[in-house]
Amino acid sequence: MKKIALAETSVFDEKSFKRFLLHDSPYFRVLNFNLKAGQLFPVHSHPTEGQLTIQVVEGSGEFLSTDTAIPAASGDILVSDISEPHGVRAVTDMRILVTIAPPF
Fold it and tell me: Residues near 49 by Cβ (< 8 Å), separated by ≥ 6?
């Protein structure tokens, strides 16, 4: 087993979102992104099979796709195919966990 202390990655940057790799294995990858209010995790996709989750740990914002914005608050989880466009816009300071399976 492995314990990850998420409190240790509570770091924000005024210029761009912060990225922390929390876990990486052949089965899945977990990343923490911290966005200041107003910052954007750009809409993008990956040409591969698999799924991802984006979980809001703190704050609020929007889950984004090419033409959709879904309100997102602490405790919300988005589930998406990796090949589907996805992104996040922070309304308040926001921390998200992204899980990718399988990792690419």
Answer: 81, 82, 83
Q: Cβ distance 54 to 30 under 8 Å?
A: no
Structure tokens at 8: 């240790």
Check: CB of residue 17 under 8 Å from CB of residue 35.
yes
Give CA–CA dist 81/11, Å, rounded: 28
Q: Which two tokens stand for residue 87?
A: 């992104």
pLDDT tens-digit profile of 15-70?
A: 999 999 999 999 999 999 999 999 999 999 999 999 999 999 999 999 999 999 99
Written as six digits, the tokens of 25 are 């294995």
Structural domains in the chain?
A: 29-97 (2.60.120.10)
